[in-house]
Amino acid sequence: MQALIDIVLPADQLEGTSAVLSKWLINVGEEVKQGDPIIELETDKVAMEICANQDGVLAEIMMHEGDDVPVEGILGRLSESGVVAQDSKVTQTVPQVKESEAFHSDEETYQQSASKLVGPAVRRLLRQHSLDLSQIQGTGRYGRVTLCDVKAHLAQMGETVPQSVSQKRVTKSRLTRHDHDARPLVGEMKPHTSMRKSIAKHMTDSLLHTSPHVTSVFEMDMTNIIEHRKWHKKEFAELGVNLTYTAYFLSACVKALQAVPEVNARFHEEGLELFKDINIGVGTALANDGLVVPVVQQVQEMNLFEIAYGLNQQIEKARTGKLQPSDMKNGTFTISNHGVSGSLLAAPIIINQPQVAILGIGKLDKRVVVKEVDGVDTMVIKPMCYVSLSMDHRALDAHQTNRFLQVFVDAIQDWG
Q1: Homologous superfamily of 212-413 in CATH?
Q2: What is the pLDDT averaged over residues 166-195?
Q3: Which residue in 59, 119, 337, 345 has its CB near the most CB atoms, within 10 A?
Q4: Contact at 8 Å (CB) between 247 and 225?
Q5: What is the C-alpha separation between 361 and 389, in angstroms, rounded?
Q6: What CATH number is given for 1-92 in this structure?
Q7: What does pTM read for this prediction?
Q8: Whole-angstrom Cα distance, residue 352 to residue 349?
């Protein structure tokens, strides 16, 4: 009787989220080396790979694509000696064929398997550019198509310009179409990804089933940090760090959270759990593929340069599909910088449970405001934005929300 090794999802890979088995990257009977990716999982926060923890052969598949994966549940089994389990749920019938036929059959199976071995970052890039995976030559293990392969393919393709509306011929039949009977409405159903389903459940649970959300809004003058960034951006860049406004927001959050420690907390039925460490998550949109919240850990111990560096690292991981579950664990507070996509104000911004509040930063916009100059009210143009705090009213009251926002705004407006 040959020993089989269980493939399990470690308990520390998830933080209160559910996972769905997205894809097996190898077939029963295939050999793997320690560290090779063998399974793709999706949660509401990230797409991730489970790697082999030792050399072996996939002997048995216990869970299949689309199955919910419990923590420490058995996904499959590896055989140390290469013997495939006879009672596996996945059986493979081997027909009697000639040697030459078997060679061609194995070659086709290999090519079909290799064409499917792509990670989440590769899939996302393929969707963005409407590429056919079969047209790209893979250079990875077993012919796996890598991110570099896709980028090289795109570089060879060049760009095409779609025909503009002004170039299209407009006919009388098209202009009078409104006179005809309305034709049936035809749509295309786009199935939700596992990540989108998990996000939908998380948002619904937070807003409707868990926290009574209340939002306060302040206005903020960005003049001083714009000036500070202008003078220090080049200096940071020479050290390989992109200085963004978000780094300033994280720094200002530290002051506000230290002034109102009840905001840096998690709500429990028996009490409010307050934290000394300030671990700030930053909502990061993935191109047409959901949202993740990478966390910058222990921000209270960092200066502006260290915050900017840590933020750069986490955002880059998020946008290249390299985030690990550990990169999104232990968050105590979250920022949603929704203004980067043009939004002036968003309310409520849904709280990232089990946290008790989330900060929203609106679009930076030049506006006319009234300032007192030499004792006279004067209209001046200032770079302004709205900043909001959506809080869990079970844990916090309005005076705490407003105190947090006041300290945050003062930290930004008085910078330097």
Answers
A1: Chloramphenicol acetyltransferase-like domain (3.30.559.10)
A2: 57
A3: 59
A4: no
A5: 9
A6: 2.40.50.100
A7: 0.60
A8: 9
